[in-house]
Amino acid sequence: MKIATYNVNGINARLPVLLRWLTETAPDVVCLQELKAPQEKFPQQAIRDAGYSAIWKGQKSWNGVAILGRGIELAETRSMLPGDDQDEQSRYIETIVNGISVGCLYLPNGNPVPGPKFDYKLRWFDRLITYAASLLETHTPTILAGDFNVIPTNLDASQPERWVQDALARPESRAAYDKLLELGWIDSLRKLSPTQSIYTYWDYYGYAYQRNTGLRIDHMLVNSELSEQVLEAGVDRHVRGWEKTSDHAPTWIKLSRQFTNPVG
What we know:
Layout: E1 2-7, H1 15-25, E2 29-33, H2 44-49, E3 52-57, E4 65-70, E5 76-78, E6 92-97, E7 100-106, H3 116-138, E8 142-147, H4 171-183, E9 186-187, H5 188-192, E10 201-202, H6 208-211, E11 214-215, E12 218-222, H7 224-227, E13 230-235, E14 251-255
Parallel strand pairs: 1-2, 7-8
Antiparallel strand pairs: 1-14, 2-4, 3-4, 5-6, 6-7, 8-12, 9-12, 10-11, 13-14
Helix pairs in contact: 3-4
């Protein structure tokens, strides 16, 4: 069973790229972020024609998250992160697939620092930590996948000195990410590749992709009930090199459990 996460940076603008990648790799479950489309503008029919059902929470011009399932119908179990009923930003959605709870998230960027956007990032992170702790108590195999907008360590940036004052690498952001790991969440890519430089994002400027000046900010955290089933983890880096592509590349894990797909 293959689960992937991908910040598409505008689902309608990048739809040909997304469909090409789905056809090429056929992941079973896909978490998407930064749809940049209102609810009614999600390309549901094109996704369905590609063999996937979808649940999504859109937002005009900004944010937006979705989960795709190959050949299965998905049921939404949560459409926002608990802890702030007044939060109108579309940043979290959740479902259950094959007995696995799948949470798709798009954590706030937080720049500029200091400022209200960084304050919102930290408040959102606090809510995530609280909810993530409650998920661990269920002992249900669970994954939290998405664009966390956090560079966990200097190993996760090709030029870490450039990001010292950025919200993605601020000590507060890293401490919040570390708190998730201290609770018992496992960074699946880093577990399998503890010393390797892995990037999931390359800026559009300065030939970042060509020079491989990247960041690892897209993460797939699993609980202990799922961790032992993770066989492989990787990044489809080549997708970042396609025409009119996102500045992120799809990130994925493969599990030992079979994917129950009624259409094969």
